[in-house]
Design a protein that fits this description.
Helix content is about 35%, strand content about 20%. By secondary structure, it is α/β, with parallel strands linked by helices. The relative contact order is 0.13. Bound molecules: adenosine monophosphate.
Amino acid sequence: MELIRDWREMQKFTCGDPHGFVPTMGYLHEGHLSLVRTARYECKTVSASIFVNPSQFGPTEDLAQYPRDLERDLTLLEDEGCDIVFHPSPESMYPQGYHTWVKVEDLSEELCGNTRPGHFQGVTTIVMKLLNIMRPERMYMGEKDFQQTVVLKRMIGDLNLPVELIVCPTVREEDGLAMSSRNSYLDADDRKRALGLYHMLLMAQSLYRQGIRSGSEIRETILPLFQEYRIRPDYLSLVDPQTLKPVRDVDDDTRVVIAGWVNLTRLIDNIRLGG
Ligand code: AMP
């Protein structure tokens, strides 16, 4: 007989062949597909969801314009060997009288949570609902949405959810722009300017390599690039990867997180300072 004290160990004991789940809002690109590929490699069953979740959009945000192409998405998922796709209607996920929310305090209020109040409550609630429906042992998400992975890891830990979150690297365009469904909003001029976000992250890494260890010095050296690239700043911060709070003395694990508006499009990106 075995005595297990660790809840993660206990859950592993009770689960069978792994089922890997990739939640998405659709309009798929290589970033999404890299998650499906990793899940396919590691799991017996692979599922994905396509759901533009209304509860994570603020009242003035791009819910209505968010790009959608179900047919194309289904073909791409099929080509990657995805076994099941869940594509519910908003009415079925949030029927009249819906009143239940999952909220991760503190972490949800930092960074994107500051400018997008309620966003992470929408994310944690929909992910909780999707996990209850799909019942995967593993969930695959992108490092591109770094804060999202930190918030969800906290939710999974705090609520003892029987799922392991696997965070996969950010997939970039050839010039370095992080792939995003929202890149489809950018015209040619916006597209050039958008690259500024990545250049700012690279500059942070380069300053760090030159030996600068003060978070505020790195931040202040980079800040003027917002103006150079004509990006309206939302935030630029060098944060602890667990608490998401700014760090005074940076190290390899420090995350440089950035968000800004290129014209009408809000883009985010991040990088580990030590590469
Ligand atoms: P979304 O459809 O934007 O909600 O994203 C669905 C999943 O794909 C999330 O886990 C994202 O972090 C991930 N993802 C989006 N863009 C990228 C990217 N460029 N590289 C890796 N993963 C990504």
